[in-house]
Amino acid sequence: MTVSAIIVAAGSGVRMKSDRPKQYLELGGMPLVSRTLKVFDDHPAVENLFLVVPAADFAFCRSEILSAVPWKKTIHLVPGGKRRQDSVHEGLKAAARYAGAGEIVLIHDGVRPFVPPDMITACIACAKESGACILGVPASDTLKRVDAGRVVSRTLSRETVWLAQTPQAFSMDLITAAFEHAAEMDFSTTDDAAVVEFYGRPVRVIPGSRRNIKITTPEDLDFALALLRLAGEMP
Description:
The strands form 2 sheets. Strands 3-2-1-4-8-5-9 form a 7-stranded mixed sheet, with helices on both faces. Strands 6-7 form a two-stranded antiparallel sheet. The model has no long low-confidence stretch (mean pLDDT about 95). Helix 5 crosses helix 6. It is built from 7 helices and 9 strands, in the order E-H-E-H-E-H-E-H-E-E-E-E-H-H-E-H. The N and C termini lie far apart (about 40 Å). It has one domain (about 5-230): Spore Coat Polysaccharide Biosynthesis Protein SpsA, Chain A (Alpha-Beta Complex), CATH 3.90.550.10. By secondary structure, it is an alpha/beta fold.
């Protein structure tokens, strides 16, 4: 069994309110996406790494990301698409060229640098058994459905609600077929597991970590710096 990881970093980062895409912002002396890549580069089960970024960023990534760190593995650059779903699909096509028997593919947000290695291992094992597996955390706050005027229309039960995280792990055959089906049916989503759900296959959820944050706003970046200080990586 081989394992590939697709790191999706093709977004523009509008919510970060920065003149630089969020994936390239510095976090503790290293570009954010580099920190994310390093987690998977260090993981012994991951054999192939694919970084999905805008094609216009290739030169920058080669000089500032790929050449700045002595990576253990080859990192393949893949041009992203207009939507996240398109970017992941391009990553899957690239990964399929290196796939072996029983291939497992991990899909991870490029701006989630704090995923614990043991959770990556757990995702791989779960996907090997079930075909589709994601990390998630149970909702802890009260959930409100709000209408267009920001008026509460309903209070939802949080007992069965989990917040999805990445990585999301799949058998290569399943996720490829699911993405092709979504394209044929013109189904659009921002979540990879939802593509598999639309394909009619079950997706298992295993416990993630509340520290496995997706850094999308300036407040998230402040929290990320605090996590680095707690880890002793910053004064």
